[in-house]
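User: Earlier you gave me the apo prediction for this protein. Now I'd like the version with pyridoxal-5'-phosphate bound, so I can compare the two side by side. Same sequence as before, with the ligand SMILES added.
Assistant: Got it. Here's the input I'm using:
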Amino acid sequence: MNYFEYRDGRLLAEGVSVSEIAERVGTPVYIYSARTLRRHLRVVREAFAGTDTIICFAMKALSNLSVLKLFSDLGAGFDIVSGGELMRCLTAGADPSKIVFSGVGKTDSEIEMALRTGILMLNVESRPELYRVSEVAQRLRLTAPVSLRVNPDLNPATHPHISTGHRDSKFGIPLSQVRDYYAEARGLPNLKLIGLTTHIGSQITETSPFVEAAQKLATIVRDLRRDGIALKFLDLGGGLGIPYQEQSPLPAEYAAALLGPLRGLELTIIIEPGRVLVGNAGILVTRVLYVKETDVKRFVVVDGAMNDLIRPVLYEAYHEIRPVEERQRSAVQIADVVGPICESGDFFARERELPEVQAGDLLAVMGAGAYGFVMASNYNSRPRAPEVIVDGTRFHVVRERESYEDLIRGERIVPLREGPDA
Ligand SMILES: *Cc1c(COP(=O)(O)O)cnc(C)c1O
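And here is the structure of the complex with pyridoxal-5'-phosphate:
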């Protein structure tokens, strides 16, 4: 469900014409719908209504300050994975008591920042990290609220790059060692063990892996209680998929899958949804530069590229592509939609059925809100695209297009020795 719809053959973002935004701001451009963002948060919240739940938006999916502010104003917390993300969400007004810090490689300075900020908890992923957190907390004379992230050893059907709950993955501590970890952690100074965490992967389109994960965590919680360790928070991560092309469970079905096995445990539930909150709330609009025909193929060359949206090549991801202006009775053709970058991996779609397009037409790459702009790079020295938020009948540029000056910021030309090396 989103608020990008056609009216009279023109694609609208809520009440604003997409082509008008493209004219005013240029292309490529990311456009987000505030109404869709609000709706998605509400639907997820309603799915968990009646359960003591904290929704921590996994902000790595979309970290524009205005998006963070919108979610923060609606009472969401944040799941962060770096000091930079902590800075961003605090800048947007996040409540530290609803911030959880995930990731296998937190640095000392990031741990320090988190402890000084007074976040809800650090999700710790290894024994050395546990000791490091304890050391940093001692040095600061603070107590570190800690949750251990367990790897539940299951393998949801998703792309291998975004599957994180299998025993071969770098994430979490092994299921078999969790109780030992807690016993050991209990003896470490300046730690407070308050939670248990997992996150099994992303773009998961079945409920069964969530059921299985919740069952395994429920067992651990009961075992720990027997060991005399009473936790307050159970953090179930994110991972709910969205319908790029496939079907995905509704938030209510997802909530039921997670909450079923946890009945009677009396814990505060934390969830870390990323993609499901923002994926369908954003599109990438790009303009056709050329239509190139070879002996065997037709290429629609657009001004957006893999540096703007890397998901198709990185995850073999499918994104629906729609014309911004629908033509009556237009013929359908098969084409690869490709960008200007000097890589064969620079495509948005391959062998795709599209309405006939010509140079100058605008195309909308749908479902680009999650892991879109945040993964953009300057490869091929391309300035990153602007980000726009539509709210009703108005739109706002919430990040400007980068300039050529931005591209070389921080670089310097130094006097190096001339001539060949001896
Ligand atoms: C990426 C990530 C999420 C969010 O995953 P989605 O699939 O976007 O919901 C949640 N928690 C952790 C620890 C993550 O790394």
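For your comparison, keep in mind: The radius of gyration is 23 Å.
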